[in-house]
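Exercise 7.
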Amino acid sequence: MSANLYTHQSENVRKTWLLITVFLVLIIGLGWAIGIFMETRAILYIAIFIAITMNIVAYWKSDKIALAMSGAKEVKREENLYLYRMIENLCITAGLPLPGVYIIDSPQINAFATGRDPNHSAVAVTKGAIEKLENEELEGVLAHELSHIGNKDILVSTVAVVLAGVIAIVADIFFRISFFGGFGDRDDRQGGGLALAIGLVVIIFAPLAASLIRLSISRKREYLADASGALLTRFPDGLANALQKIAHDQQPMRRAHSGTAHLFISNPFKGKQSKNWLVHLFSTHPPIEDRIRILKGMKV
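Solution. The predicted structure, written as tokens, is:
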């Protein structure tokens, strides 16, 4: 298990740098292509500025963005001693520094971890999880999230929140520039038509590219965090029972956002989402029934 965990941690670091590199190449490439056919270098310079700036923001501030998008509010130790003590005990067992502790004002049972490394991390849990889960169930959920921190899942997952969203936004901006601002009396030129065609392709496929970036965060990380969390608590049934309650809770989160959905222990959209095969193909979470079955079969 240890060798697998170390391999997984190294793989997540590589994935993060790959994600950042792909983002740089994609955004600068879009700026270069649109700039050529609009006969201006300004678009390329803008693309380079956006790519570099957003990579910096994604690395240093993506956790704050993810927390804000989810409506998570930081709590002090004296404000929720029960939650703090549980996280502190798990951190001592796991050998992790204490993360920032946040609560999401939502009756749904859910939680997520974020940050760029164990020393700059946070765990957010819904009020529903605190109120509806038994001690060992909440402990299992928190152990799962702390395992994401220990396994170094949080950086690549959180960076994907910012970069995937920016790709879609920048593609839309480039399309609007090429369609409305770049042609005028050039519409009869071949270059103008080609630029428009590129813009159309970009705007159509950008959302797909953003989804694929989020899906590059392997679903296997959830299985691994389940197993790591169960080993941390030495009680797999705690997390399994929590997941069973989550499975029966079909109420979607009020602040659910497609950009942060992959961070949560369970899909925050719940009943909002269709059951067709295409939705499952692009799902950011493995089937919850499979996770429960694996946990129930674990022996620690």
